[in-house]
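In line with agreed milestones, work has continued on tokenised descriptions of protein folds. One protein thus recorded appears below exactly as we store it:

>
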Amino acid sequence: GNGQAVMGGRMNLIHPTAERIVAAAIAKAGDDTQQLLDTALSSDFTSTPLYVVVESVRRLYTGVEPIDLAAIEVEATRYMKETNIKANINEQFLSELIATDTRRAPAYAHTVHKMAWLRQFQATVEWANGELANLPDPDELYQAAQSKLAWLKPPTKENRFVYGWDTADYDALLFKREQEARDGKAVVFNYPWQSWNDRIKPLRPGMVGIVAGPEGSGKSGFLSMIGEHWARLCHVVYVHLEDNLDYTIDRRMSRWAHTDIENLEAGKLNDYQRSAVTEATKRLSAIIPQLHYLDASGMTMDEIVKELEARRNDGICDAVVLDYINKVRPSRGQAKLFSRSDERQADDMEQFKTFCEAPQQKTVGFTAAQYNKEGKANHKRKSSTDMRGSGEWADKCQLLVMLDRTVVETPVKDTNGKVILDVGEDSPTIKVRVEKQNRGCKAEFEQIHVGKYFQIRDKQHV
């Protein structure tokens, strides 16, 4: 019953009793449930029904609704439909499950996780033996082994203390930077527009930038173009919380090929458009291998950070672009701690900033924020207090850029005299103001929002 029997020279690393007791305790949704979920991951369970129950409770804990057997059954049904998993999760099954004696659940949670780790270790050893027998290419084997070993790496506490004498050898640091610059390996987190590079200093790993503006000001366009620009030199994770991946990719192609998204969606392209898409695909091939996407719709910041930490351990997260922070779902813990949404969103920003500042693994971050009701007024000069959520965001970032779209006061006509923008509509001109940058001065300038192609351009390039 301890799950350590040897079968055919292979240990049977499964503990059914421990799995059932831990899953039962999690389903009861008591005070220790969050601790159990942190100790034993849903993927640690070998029993499909128990895995579904634990994953369903974990999902419910990201919301604020009450957790009971009915809610677990509904969430389990929804999850199984999404993932095409088959399991008989009904009221009788759940009632029998929570009738289990769960007094040993805290200890068994460690057992469940330990067994999962050992199973993965066993599979990795078997994989390595098989690969070595085939005399693989050393470079390819090294990369594959690094990826598999990342999962096995135990969590470690970050050491934030540094002795003074460890900072004395500045010449070595400078030599490393000079060598990287000579070899073309230096990564400079600057921007895709000359107007920004003339006025805004590049971000450094561990720093966070924010672009704030009202609805329709082009925030997602700014974020997308920054992420694509950085992906030329390093791995970027683009976290999207509103648009699905297909739409995000369609917008990317529209931006790069200067082709109407309606034609891309319908699959109706003329010869010129098809040629433009082919050429754009060639240019995109230089960045696509390093531009990764995370669909975080419905996720809390805690869940997003955990996913990003896993990607950083995989070596594919040098920069994160989060579109955008107001859309992050509040967690159950935040609902208990904070009574106002601005407090919860300030906590989201704190978690995101802490992730970016992790010692030895610093990551550049960029996100966007929505204006609040007062900030939407066109007659006033915007400041950090006009962001929806909390002005504390400005204290936690190293760069804050405020956007404002002008309003058309007289009709704008094309060369044929047709009105293309009427009075009261948003002008393509975006007023950009650098409200804060820790390594530079404030500045004001204008750019152009080409909404047709989801693109931001400098005025001289329109």
